Amino acid sequence: SVSFWAGSRLQKRVTAPTEYHLGLLKAKLAKYRAQLLEPSKSSAAKGEGFDVMKSGDARVALIGFPSVGKSTFLSLMTSTASEAASYEFTTLTCIPGVIEYKGANIQLLDLPGIIEGAAQGKGRGRQVIAVARTADVVIMMLDATKGEVQRALLEKELESVGIRLNKSKPNIYFKPKKGGGISFNSTVTLTQCSEKLVQLILHEYKIFNAEVLFREDCSPDEFIDVIVGNRVYMPCLYVYNKIDQISMEEVDRLARRPHSVVISCGMKLNLDYLLEKLWEYLALTCIYTKKRGQRPDFTDAIILRKGASVEHVCHRIHRSLASQFKYALVWGTSTKYSPQRVGLTHMMEHEDVIQIVKK
Ligand SMILES: Nc1nc2c(ncn2[C@@H]2O[C@H](COP(=O)(O)OP(=O)(O)OP(=O)(O)O)[C@@H](O)[C@H]2O)c(=O)[nH]1
Ligand SMILES: [K+]
Ligand SMILES: [Mg+2]
After folding, report:
1. Are 99 and 110 in contact (CB under 8 A)?
2. 286 beta partners
3. Where do the H-state alpha helices sit in 38-143?
4. String of b and e for 172-209 (b: at least 16 CB within 10 Å)?
5. 123 in contact with ligand 1, CB cutoff 6 A
6. Could you tell me where the DSSP H helices lie in 38-148?
7. How far is the CA of 354 from the CAs of 31, 215, 339, 341, in angstroms?
8. N or C, fewer C-beta in 10 Å, the chain?
9. Would you give the distance in Å from CA 264 to the centre of its chain?
10. Which residues contact 100 (CB under 8 A, 6 or more apart)?
11. Which of 192, 194, 123, 128 is nearest to 158 (CA)?
12. How far is the CA of 261 from the centre of ligand 3 (A)?
């Protein structure tokens, strides 16, 4: 009977689908990588000047290999000068500047160059990536003369520390429970995950009781992202600099890549277009205020991040306004009627007009 057991176990192993094996392997890998996210204990590795205060309406981080032109870009777009030179690792700390655009103050952060292995702490990689996590948009600056390798390498580095570029959060409801086992459901046909695989992955994380509902056809990796939970989903613009050095055909090809903009800092080419794109990727919400019996003030927008409420608008106008608030009238896409009477929790949308009535 001993050999029978051994045989059947072997059989089981041989026929175990690759999907399960891979799914589990990825769960293990993700667990290992989560350790990379933990702050390093030695203060020597901390690097000075990285804790730049968040200011303005949004934050953009410049990520890229050394000498791709990050500092040149910062000096061009803001009134801050950041030293640029032909040697690598000219920039050693985080240097903030401000881009003023459409009434918004956008904080632009110049950072040291990063290289392969940055996530594991090569160079100042860890600190740079930690700053990138706090940004609203990442500009991945690439040297157009250097081919596509840099882009793939940097994507891999950011991916390995839980930064997801140009992806939205997987639409999976996940709730760990005290008991009751694992309840699994899906509202769509799943082609990449199954109940069995989901269970195996959860067991890998020592989760034996949970509610799981797939609302889209997610991959095992995406499910793992949901379990691990500390992922950041961030828009990223790939900016190919130094196009003054490449052929027309190459410019054409790069410009057509998704999420990509081609520029030349040296010749000040296409920088306006980059700003337009950046504005689009920041997706900030502009709100106009209006006084009773007057036309809205379209010259001075209140700029907020997506998902801002009437309360956020109040705080922006005056610190004590929310406490004196009676109701607001809102015109725009966030309401069914224009105007509509709303309370403090009403969510504002881009280009809404608001009139606040005090107690
Ligand atoms: N040909 C050309 N050279 C450029 C362009 N933009 C920047 N450079 C040059 O590229 C070199 C590196 O520029 P930096 O701005 O120091 O690059 P960086 O990415 O900040 O570099 P690190 O701080 O070392 O990571 C400098 O010699 C710049 O003059 C461009 O559009 N075309
Ligand atoms: K440089
Ligand atoms: Mg630099």
Report:
1. no
2. 303
3. 70-77, 125-133
4. bebeeeeeeebebebeeebeebbeebbbbbbebbebee
5. no
6. 70-77, 125-133
7. 47, 35, 9, 10
8. N
9. 25
10. 106
11. 128
12. 20
**ipTM of this complex > 0.90?**
yes
CATH architecture of 285-358: Roll (3.10)
94 and 50 in contact (C-beta within 8 Å)?
yes
**Using a CB cutoff of 8 Å and minimum separation of 24, what contacts does 148-153 make?**
150/64, 150/65, 150/68, 151/238, 153/116
Backbone angles phi, psi at 273, to 5 degrees: -65, -40
The atom of ligand 1 lying closest to the CA of 113 is 25
pTM of whole model > 0.90? no
For residue 211, which of 224, 221, 198, 220 has the smallest C-alpha distance? 198
Q: Which ligand is nearest to the CA of 264?
A: 1
Say yes or no: CB of residue 71 within 6 Å of ligand 1.
yes
pLDDT digits (tens, 9 = 90+) for 184-204: 999 999 999 999 999 999 999
Q: From the CB of 264, is ligand 1 less than 6 Å away? A: yes
- Cβ atoms within 10 Å, residue 118: 26
Q: How far apart are CA 165 and CA 1, in angstroms?
A: 54
Q: What count of residues does the chain have?
A: 359
254 lines ligand 1 (CB under 6 A): no
Give CA angle at 281 (38, 71), nearest 5°.
70
Ligand 1 centre and the CA of 144: distance in Å?
Answer: 12
In tens, the pLDDT along 40-52 reads: 544 334 445 678 8
Q: Is 81 in the pocket of ligand 1 (CB under 6 A)?
A: no
For the chain, the structural domain boundaries read 18-37+170-228, 48-166+232-282, 285-358
48-166+232-282 fold: Rossmann fold (3.40.50)
User: How close is the Cα of 68 to the center of ligand 1, in Å?
Assistant: 5
C-alpha of residue 90 to centroid of ligand 3, in Å: 5
By the 10 Å C-beta count (0-12 exposed, 13-18 middle, 19+ buried), 344 is classed as middle
- Are 263 and 87 in contact, with CB atoms under 8 Å apart? no
CA 62 to ligand 1: nearest atom: 19
